[in-house]
Amino acid sequence: MAIRNIGVLLSLSVAAFAIGADGALAQMPAAIAAADAATVVTLHAEGAQIYECKTADDGKLAWAFREPIATLILGGKTVGRHYAGPNWEHIDGSIVQGKAAGNAPGATANDIAWLKLDVVAHHGAGTFANVDIVQRINTSGGVLRGPCEQAGALRSAPYSADYVFLHKGG
Q: Which of 19, 113, 141, 161 is most buried (CB neighbours < 10 A)?
């Protein structure tokens, strides 16, 4: 009986972790967890977070996030792209658009946040057709620092992340 209970505890513990691109386990923050969902596909992304110099509420110029642009990769091959919306487009023609539903800090101050996004729109049939939730995990980079001196100026900050596409009740 004790061995069976240990197995159940081990299974629950593993469910609270995410596997990184390097194969390492990282704990899944509660704010972005989706325990009631099954993974459809996990894709690695390489790209940039684009920022625009804008006047902040205090009247000073500051960098404001504008949009992402990234290549989605599976097994070393490009299988899609990620862009403003936020949207994820697979080479099979399926597209999902998300809306932020939760976040957790990245591993360092230079890493953009981990996110949970609820899918608010679907287009086409294919890999993303039944996706309900997208998680952005294992982020590296993407935070822009430094002065912003001219309104309207654009700058990019390279980043990488893993996107986990999930289906509820799966």
A: 161
What would the two tokens of residue 133 be? 């939730």
- Rounded Cα distance between 100 and 164, Å, is 14
Residues 6+ apart with CB under 8 A from 100: 115, 116, 117
Distance, in Å, from the CA atom of 115 to the CA atom of 24, rounded to the nearest integer, reads 19
**DSSP character at residue 112:** P
pLDDT tens for 146-160 read 999 999 999 999 999
Q: Which are the contacts of 115, defined by CB distance < 8 A and separation ≥ 6?
A: 32, 100, 102, 103, 134, 135, 136
The pTM of the full predicted model, rounded to 2 decimals, is 0.84
DSSP 20-62: -TTS-EEEPPGGG--TTEEEEEEEEEEEEEEEEEEE-TTSSEE
